[in-house]
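Supplementary Methods S3. Input chains for the assembly prediction are listed below.
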Amino acid sequence: MNSWKLWMLLVQGAGLTVAISLLSIVIGLAIGAFISAGMLSSKQMFAVPSRLFVSFFRGVPLLVQLLLIYNLLPVIGINVSSVIAAITGLSLCTAAYQAENLRGGFMSVPKGLIEAAEMAGLNATQQFRRIRLPIAFRLTLPAIINEAIMILKASSLVSVVGVVELTRMTQDLSASTYRPLELFAMAGVIYFIINWGLSFVGSYTENAIRWGRP
Amino acid sequence: MRFDPALIIHHLPSILSGLSVTILTWLIGTIGAVLVGFVIASSRRFGPRPLGMALGAIVEVIRGTPFLIQLFLLYFGGPYIGLFLDPLPAGLLGLTVYGSAYFSEIFRGGFEAVPVGHIEAAECVGLNRFQIVKRILLPEMSMLVLPSAVNMAILLIKETAVLSIITVPELTMIVSAIGSEYYAFVESLFLLALFYWALVELCGFLGRKAEEKLSHFRLSAS
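Predicted structure tokens for the full assembly:
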């Protein structure tokens, strides 16, 4: 196999890694927002399951979660491809971390701002949409980006459930070419570059939403 | 789904050996990572500038790449540069290297968070450099870094599961092998998940207790 062909295959694997990670980050953030709302709820029927969810998905190794979901879905009658199973596993895991991040953010919204919004006559929905959500998002953005980077790295684990993303592709190629040293080093470089891109987007967004900050 | 509790009792010896491998790799890996991480952080703070920059670059690379890739590089790539390691030593080395990068960042943050005024005050009362490190910097720093260090140690428990991929005979590998042998994957994985969950929660609890115990050392000013 010539090196051009190798390159193309690695890039193809990297493409799937990026796709899986981005989907999981977005889905996980959405689920995480709901879970964080549940955790902050005063009703026990929302708060307790949300806290259990966060504790479970943060307490169990992602590898075990992925194996569990991959093997569990067919048993309960859901036949999906390994890519979907992988995205499900990554999304649920990252949702737990993002929920914890967002919870912290919502709790650090200054009380005075909410009181001011009340005084100005904003109703609960408006308060949430215009005051609490934007401020919490801004406060937690660094942590959210950090978790996104963690998920990108953790996506290498989906190689064990048969998704041919960057890690699995590198494994397969190194088995057929007997060049594990160069190939895994190359994969590491590719992960590093993708991460760098993610953190660039993160700091760009942080700067872009600095409005109103002293 | 078929699940027989007798299966667990039957395989108890191998499960226990997997458990001990998990706990031992975690303990040794964590202690190694804390020590190496401390050396890295101190070298970056007190050592010559070029060394600090080189270490900083290495830390960035380790933090920017997946643990699994590092393990594969070590385990499959190592023999090509004369580094022949069995799964267990490779896993331990990988865990130590990976953890040390994160611990070094925690310690670096700790060094930076010690108020400059305290160091200046120590200089004023005539403590020498060594005394300042021993009596001011280290005690204050260890209080500051305790929560994140406990957090990182807990993260490393979960990372030990990844070692199963390079066939370290720890809990995940043993239990999933039993699961596939008896076609009882889901049940055994559930048990495995519950076990890790309990272990992580227990460590989190112990960590919080330790923080409470040590909290009277914390400076009220900072």
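The CA atoms of residues 118 and 124 of chain A lie 8 Å apart. Chain A touches chain B through 36 residues (CB under 8 Å).
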